[in-house]
From TrEMBL, chain A:
Disordered as annotated region, ranges: 1-25
Domain Glycine dehydrogenase C-terminal: 378-483
GO cellular component terms, A-Z: cytosol; glycine cleavage complex
GO molecular function term, any single one: glycine binding
UniProt entry keywords in alphabetical sequence: Oxidoreductase, Pyridoxal phosphate
GO biological process: glycine decarboxylation via glycine cleavage system
EC numbers: 1.4.4.2
Pro residues bias: start-end ranges: 1-10
Protein name stated in the entry: glycine dehydrogenase (aminomethyl-transferring)
Catalytic activity, as annotated: N(6)-[(R)-lipoyl]-L-lysyl-[glycine-cleavage complex H protein] + glycine + H(+) = N(6)-[(R)-S(8)-aminomethyldihydrolipoyl]-L-lysyl-[glycine-cleavage complex H protein] + CO2
Keyword Manganese listed: no
Aminotransferase class V domain mapped to chain residues: 184-301
Automatic annotation (TrEMBL), chain B:
Alphabetized InterPro entries for the sequence: GcvPA (IPR023010), GDC-P_N (IPR049315), PyrdxlP-dep_Trfase (IPR015424), PyrdxlP-dep_Trfase_major (IPR015421), PyrdxlP-dep_Trfase_small (IPR015422)
Classification via Gene3D superfamilies: Aspartate Aminotransferase, domain 1, Type I PLP-dependent aspartate aminotransferase-like (Major domain)
Keywords assigned: Oxidoreductase
Enzyme type, top EC level: oxidoreductase
GO MF entry, a single one: glycine dehydrogenase (decarboxylating) activity
Protein name, UniProt field: Glycine dehydrogenase subunit 1
GO biological process: nucleoside metabolic process
This enzyme's EC code(s): 1.4.4.2
SUPFAM superfamilies: PLP-dependent transferases
All copies of domain Glycine cleavage system P-protein N-terminal, residue ranges: 6-448
Amino acid sequence: MKTGPTPSPLTPADARIGPKPPLRRFHQARWDEPLLFELGSPGERGVLPPLPQVPADVVLPDGLRRTSPPALPELSQPQVLRHYLRLSQENLGADFNVDVGQGTCTMKYSPKVNDRFVRDPKVAALHPLQDERTVQGVLEIMYRLEGLLREISGMDRFSLQPGAGSAAIYTNVAMIRAYFAARGEAETRDEVITTIFSHPSNAACARTAGFKVITLYPDADGYPDIEALRRAVGPRTAALLITNPEDTGLFNPRIEEFVRIVHEAGGLCAYDQANANGILGITRARDTGFDLCHFNLHKTFSTPHACGGPAAGACGVSAELAPYLPTPTVEFDGTRYRLDDDRPESVGKIRPFYGVVPNLVRAYAWIMSMGGAGLREAAEVAVLNNNYLMAKVLQIRGASVPYAPGRPRVEQVRYSWERLAEETGVHSEDIGVRAADFGTHYWTSHHPYIVPEPMTLEPTESYSRAELDEYAAILAEVAREAYEDPETVRTAPHRSTVHRAREDVLDDPATWAVTWRAYRRKILGE
Amino acid sequence: MNAHPYIPNSVPEVKREMLAAIGARSVEDFYADVPGRIRLDRPLDLPPPLRSEAELVRHVGGLLRRNTSAEEALSFLGAGCYHHHVPAVVEEVVNRSEFLTAYAGEPYEDHGRFQALWEYQSLMGELLEMDVVSVPVYDGHQAAATALRMAGRITGRRRLLLVTAVAPDKLSKIKDYVRPDHDVVVVPVDPATGLADPAAVRAELAAGDVAAVFAEAPSASGILDPALPSLAEMAHEAGGLYVVGCNPISLGAVTPPAGYGADIVCGDVQPLGLPMSYGGMNGGFIATRDEELYVGEFPSRLFGLAPTSVEGEYGFGDVAYERTSFAVREQGKEWVGTAAALNGIAAGVYLALMGPQGMREVAETILANTRYALDRLAGVPGVETPYADAPHFADFTLRFTGPQTSAEIGEALLEHGIFGGRVLSETDALYCVTEIHTKDDIDRLAETLQEIAK
């Protein structure tokens, strides 16, 4: 019902809606949602399980019968649904924003149709120990996916078992260890060489597997220092674990020489292809001489990132290393697909059963929707987008790109806000928090910060020119604020679900609270 | 080529404009650092792309139709992957784009992810009666392997005693993973009963240098070993830790391992609201007491609750981040990366829906169905239930004494539309029932075996 004074007569101009402002007037959802434990009432139920139709009250041995029920909250179904849907609205998925700010982690568009396949009971309700005759479809998809990855990388065999990229790095390290053990060199080849611009898991997985880690730092141009490599290799070298292009976005033009130097010292070379998206169809791991490689199927081949997993990894190896692949592999005899567990030299099981199968199905579907030319198109557009965004960012006051000035970057760029920080006192972390006020995600980079005040952007092929312009405009606006109104940046976020948390509370054993029960005991004194 | 629907800037005119804006002649300029010798001089040899979404659906759907799902058959498969009911609300939540496509946002744009995962930790904390639970690691195998390495770091000792039946796949993972720092000693269970052998465990403990005694509750044979509490005492008397792997869906009825002395508890959340997905949907949990020594040894992320500058507002962030490889590379504890976060959120939604009563009921139903299956199948000629005196949860061993092997029995069952259990040996197989099985289902298995097993 309309109220108020009678308006003057309308003209078409009154119905005209003005142009959008240059930047989105975003505000993240703020439901001020309570903790689950503060909701509900004793006796409420969310879902009812089947009751037994057979004699119940099974006797358990002394000490094994739970005496008091778990102190879970008691909630009706609509309350649970509303709680979690409110939380979902307070979360910025890649489907909602120009999600280019998580450099080194290439999230791209994850086609919706592929999600349909994995929700189908023909995937979701398969048990991994079913008779092979009843799972020929899923085995064929796994077999075909391996074939596609072989062609994309040039490698001879793949395992699709690792649960994610770091699990694949670990798997490669485990295979390297098994390879040298089989040659009687397990004791002597105990060093792994990696670079500071490779993912931390390269160093950490090698250490976990028992290797000493040697880290190469960049030369003056930002490429891994080849003289440092020459000094590092020797009879103790088991392997080189390296990313190319590195997280700086620079492709190492002497990569073949790196491989040759390590091979001449008797070591193996493993290619971390987390940054493969920009080189699909351009260059292949095996053609450069690598013995092992791995892909992050969730990054390069489009499976959704799911808040940090489940993801999926794939390890590719040369024929010489194939005996060490995790068990089982998927084989085809011309008629039937089967799982081969008879692999005596295998490193064994890396995870339960065969891999994160839903993501294997999605990755297969994505590659089949692209074809060879489509993969190359994805790579080229990703690289075009990256260099386009770099040109835009370099126009922003206070931003720079360290190393090799004028050289192109491939998949991503590690930028520096060093000048801006010196001139304004605003740090890269602050810029990231302020960027959230404009509806985007931005993360600095992995530690340690070799590049001061770092920011790593990786646009992938999934964003339009207008979206890249929007992202650059947001950064430009935050940089302008840093110079003209730094307090606004330093006190961000202003349009978020929450304000900055007390981080010191999280580092102090007296106050950290990982669970509700710990919070009640330690903080509330209950 | 034509513009690809997944690639906005694949329109040739847009590309030209962008190149012009940068001052580049072609994308080749950007690959100037890739030497010609390693350039692929031909197109990738892949199948022609399925141009339309309709063709893709037809192709992938056609392959998937060659599968027979466990919903179309009557399945008695368990052995580490369990067919439970997944509530519709769980699917609704985890299929929301906001959760499905998010990654590693900061609390300021991804508050919902932090809260949902902290609540997952908290719900698991109540189920396990432990104050510290990690953000999910990959799976239960990884959780067990890491829990054992944590025990090794805490005690500074080398030997790990595995004292209940452990599935061969899990044992393989553990052995590979702890190899640089630990010796795994499998203390065989009593072949007559399937139970842990306390005398053998004592003997191994007496040899010293034991970091941890590891037990599974239930064991790989489905047995809830009555010795679980006394194994804790033995481990502690020898100065070692007690690490227990458990099936979380059992804990509505079964004492959580912390209640009988476990120091570190681990397992897989797959039974809590995750579909089987051909063995692909897992999330590992690791839980400990809230002691600095224990917290410091977790490799995975731990989310914590903290105040913000606004009264009544919940803030979240990483607890003791400096222990992780994200912070200090190889100086961190093992490694951390993308693992299985959304599966933790799914498990949280499941626990929120079930509540204390639901968890009790589902566990009681599974206990009752398992006992009924053991009793009913023991009465089938040619079928024995070798460890039936022990309490079981979900999984149980059948021994076939007739002329057919357990694999042949499985073949015959398949012809009747039944997926029989995992073959363990010529004579034995591991069968499984959960809350989704009715009395009729179990009777049908018994009647079919009566036909084929004699």
